[in-house]
Amino acid sequence: MSIAIKSAIEPIKPIIESENEPKIKPNVKVKSESAIKLIIQVPCYNEEETLPQTINDLPRHIGGIDIIEYLIINDGSKDNTVNVAKGLGVHHVVNFANNKGLARGFMAGIDAGLRLGADIIVNTDADNQYKGADIEKLVRPILDGNADIVIGERPIDETEHFSWKKKKFQRLGSWVVRVASGTTVPDAPSGFRAYSREAALQLNVVNAYTYTLETIIQSGMNRMAVTSVPIRTNPETRESRLFKSMWRYMQRSATVIIRSVVMYRPLKFFSIIGTIAMIIGAAFVTRFLVFVAMGQGDGHIQSLILAAMLIMVGVQCVIAGLHADVTAASRKILEDIQYRVRKLELDER
User: Fold this and answer.
1) Are residues 218 and 244 in the same domain?
2) Which residues make beta-bridge pairs with 193?
């Protein structure tokens, strides 16, 4: 991940001239060891029209924060997004030559924020969906030492541009994520969130679609302190670009959730599937034995064949879970190594 992000940041001049000797623009304060630095990152893809509203709405001062800087992730925009951002006084730009997607853009911003010395990183959307004044609500639990990750809870039921169907699906999806992650996050798809430096160091996103669901499941599995705060939203400025239809969004979100659960709890996942298959198989065996006891077993041999197949499938699922659990243990070791390497690299900088 680091190599990919470095290549994205290197062309940004004069904000970051080189990888080893970053040169800061004159309006950027030099951070002392005791200062608390907040970086607000804004993923952008062709956002020249909505970006001025978003940047102008961001806070300039927050109690307990010494330095506030803005960072945009230009995800291959074809319009004038970068020049507009610079004209608005944005401090840092991470630039992709072509579109990489929301998940990769998010992680690029996290990596850049860490390298720039952020103690807290806030992510918001470029379409001005969220009210910038509520960023203070997001960072307060982290400043108070009560949370590692804070997610903004939108007033979904009161949001006029959300259809009845979308509201119900949002609630259902958030419930599934809560069950999968063991957290109490009421609005899982919300992109308005804050991360402490320690939490950001441990983040990994492997899917190329969205970071919102996977990072919650990952944080819950890693026992991070995740909380939510109620936030406000602005009127819709444009249609969502993340999905073209509700069903497509549900399909891709379900894939992300299942993949994340399999990554972090493979033994439990496959054992549940295997146990269900073996119970159904045992039921068919019982049915066959009842017919045999009644003297009618010859006409129900199919039940015995189906039962044998289901039991075999169940056993294979459990075995697959055991293999996957060993792989998951190796992945956890690799994540720990990655965290330590990141931390050492950033401490040296």
Assistant:
1) yes
2) 123, 151
